Amino acid sequence: MIEIQYSAEVAAARAAGTAIVALESTIITHGMPFPQNVEVAAQVEQDIRDTGAIPATMAVIKGVLHVGLETDQLQALGQAQGVAKVSRADMPVCLAMGKTGATTVAATMIAARLAGIDVFATGGIGGVHKGAEHSFDISADLMELAQTPMTVVAAGAKAILDIPKTLEVLETQGVPVIAYGQDSIPAFWSSQSDLNAPLRMDTARDIARSHAMRQAMALPGGQLIANPIPADAEIAAEVLAPVIAQAQAEADAQGVTGKAVTPFLLQRIFELTEGRSLTANIALVRNNARLAAEIAKELVKLKA
Ligand code: PSU
Ligand code: MN
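A: This is the predicted complex of the input protein with pseudouridine-5'-monophosphate.
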C-alpha cells in the first residue's frame, strides 16, 4: 500500500548489504537557507560515501516515500517553496493525499524503519522548548525515540531548547542518551555544556553493540548519540545565550507557535550571528554523518 521509491544507489546498497545511513530533509527545507541547504545536503551525502556507507535522504514527493534522493530531486526539494514539514502526525496524511513533504527527525525515523535502515544522522533533534511549562511545546522527536528502533546521531539537542527538561523526558521515556567521547552533553553549536550525559561511549563499535543488544532484547525505541561539534567550529555558549534569548523573545512577542517555532528561531539566530550559526551547523552535521557511517558499518559487521 505504501509506495516506496529507492534511489539507485540505495537500491544497490540494499541488494549488496552495504551500510546505509538515513538523513532527514526538514533540515534542507526548513533548517537552512537556499542555496547553502542544497550544497550542504550534497556534501553530507558525500561524507557518508567517503566513510564507506551509502546515504538515504528521506522525503515524501507526490505521495511516494523516497528513500534516497537523486541529485535533481534534492535540488528541486531545496528550492521548492511551501514544502510541508512532516512529522509522525502528518506523514500518513501527506502520503495518502499525494502531497510533498520534508521529513523531520521523527518522520525520518519512521521512514528508515520501513526501509530496514538502523542508523540516522542529523544536526540536532527537537526537544522540550524553553517555557514548555506554559506552551507544552515538546517535539514529537522525543516520543519517536521512545518507540522506533534507530540509532540517531545528533550534536545534542539544539541550544534553543531547554536541555535539562529534554534530558528528563528522554529518561522518562527510557531513551539512552550517549555522549560520544566526552562526559558532558554537547549543546549543538557548543561542544560542551555543564550537564553530564547519562551515558558515554568512545567507539562506533560499542554504539553498534548496544544497538544490536536492544534489538536482541526486542526493546522498542532507539538510542540518541550526542556527538560534540568539532572544537574548531564551535561557538561559545556565552556568545550564543543572548542571541537565543533575543530570538525566543521575538518568537513569543510575535505569537509564533507549533511547527513554526523551530524554523523561526533557527532563521533569526542565523541572521543575528551573521551566518556564523550556519557555518557551525554545517560542521556538526558533517561530523555526525561521518560517525553515523562508522556505526552503520560496524552494525553490518556485527550482523554478518
Ligand atoms: N536539526 C537542525 N535543523 C533543523 C532540524 C533539526 O540542525 O531544522 C529540524 C528537524 O527536522 C527536527 C525538527 O525534527 O527541526 C524539530 O522540529 P519541532 O521542534 O517542531 O519538533
Ligand atoms: Mn514543537
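Residues 276-303 form the longest helix (28 residues). The pocket of manganese (II) ion (ligand 2) is lined by residues 137, 139, 261 (CB under 6 Å).
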